[in-house]
Amino acid sequence: MVFSSLTYLLLFMPCVLLGYRLMPSKARMPFLLGASLLFYGWGSPSWLLLLAWCILVSWGGVLLMSRFQSKRKLILILIIVLDLLPLFWFKYIGFIRDTLRDVTGWSLDIRNPVLPAGISFFTFQALSYVIDVYRGNARTQRSPVTFGVYLALFPQLVAGPIVRYTDLEEQLIAHPRPTWDQMRRGLRRFCVGLAKKVLLADALGRFWGQMNADFTQAGALGAWLGLIAFSFQIYFDFSGYSDMAIGLGEAMGFVLPENFDHPYRSRSLTEFWRKWHISLTTWFTEYVYIPLGGNRRGTLQRDLNLLIVWSLTGLWHGAGWNFVLWGLFFAVLLILEKRFIRDNSRLERIPAWLRQCFTYIPVLLGWGLFSGFGMPLFSAMFGSVGFASSQSLLTCAAFAPLLLLCAFISFAPRLPRVREWRFAAPVLMLLCLAALVSQGYAPFVYFQF
């Protein structure tokens, strides 16, 4: 089930929110766990086995770790391996098979398994709990229902934000009844996120799809504008999901961490990656970069750590060499920025808008790598197929107002806070329902991760 489907909007969400609000205190957690499992298993019930595996391995493994103190490290390693096995199989076995075939000529008779939605998100969330308990930063949760709600909480289950157990522990234990005011605020934010997805991201995706269908027809103009549309699509799609997740969490009394902070307004790449997918950046910082030594062991070691972290970040996003190249691309740029640009006082004199442009251009080229179209896209962007066909010019002109609107939202000074959208939220919901009835819904971009 997805947030932008009529089944969810007209049936599941109203029933669950009202049911949770009216439930007695002791029934609230079991009810929410059941609703979350129904949400995840709606389209593919077999995926529930993977989620149950991750819950049982992490919950049960930590109980064993707390009981057998002398073997804590060995149990930790075993839990991490068992948690990562499904992710490795479903996401990377095809990539490993193809790489072995291309490098050695060996052909393994393995079919590509269907990637379960959100497996990277709930696996990383489970690992954060296990590692935090091992480090002594979190307490062991002995209730399988409470831990199941933490890992399977449906608002952020499929595409984050990745929530640490310590961020939700008190809320899971207390699970106070949400107030009507909390529910109103949460639903307003949900409506804004839904509008980002349905009214902006999906339309941008249609334009990008027309341009990348044939770059010889799109020409340089279509390739550039198409990639710009993709950069806005992935932002509004993913930040829209995060807004919906955070809003739904608030409607049920949970405070989920922010995942985006207007990243395209950043004035450096370092700032951009502190504002884009904040929960994933925090995860890699806490559980990979700092354990490797961070920046405490000199410049060369810091640069090596960045290369490792960004290679893993690329692989987390997808099993393909384009994702690895995307990660290494940003690793190199961040290393150069930290070495030669970050502490250069002269750069402070450059106007803020120009620094935003200098930041957005490499980010845009990075999205070109990320998209998987690679050389055909870049060749078209730099003029190998001409400027544009007549059909491409008409399509670009038709979508130009939408691109300008998205550019204004992405780059302009901050817009009013969500609470000031009180009267706009119902209108946005009606517009989204009308769009879904006429066009259907498109999957979220990050569901593939």
How would you explain this protein's 3D organization?
Helix content is 71%, strand content 0%. It has helices spanning 6-22, 25-41, 47-67, 72-104, 119-135, 144-152, 165-174, 180-212, 215-251, 269-275, 278-289, 299-317, 321-341, 352-371, 374-381, 390-411, 424-439.
Uncertain runs: none
* Strand portion: under 5%
From the N-terminal CA to the C-terminal CA, the straight-line distance is: 16 Å
Let me know the largest β-sheet.
Answer: none
Mean pLDDT: 88
Number of helices: 17
| Helix fraction bin | over 70%
Shape: globular
| H/E topology pattern | HHHHHHHHHHHHHHHHH
Counting DSSP E segments of at least 2 residues, the number of strands comes to 0
Task: Label the structural class.
Answer: mainly alpha
CA-atom Rg in angstroms:
23 Å
Question: How is this fold's topology laid out?
Answer:
Layout: H1 6-22, H2 25-41, H3 47-67, H4 72-104, H5 119-135, H6 144-152, H7 165-174, H8 180-212, H9 215-251, H10 269-275, H11 278-289, H12 299-317, H13 321-341, H14 352-371, H15 374-381, H16 390-411, H17 424-439
Helix pairs in contact: 1-2, 2-6, 3-4, 3-5, 3-6, 4-5, 8-9, 8-16, 8-17, 9-14, 9-15, 9-16, 11-12, 12-13, 13-14
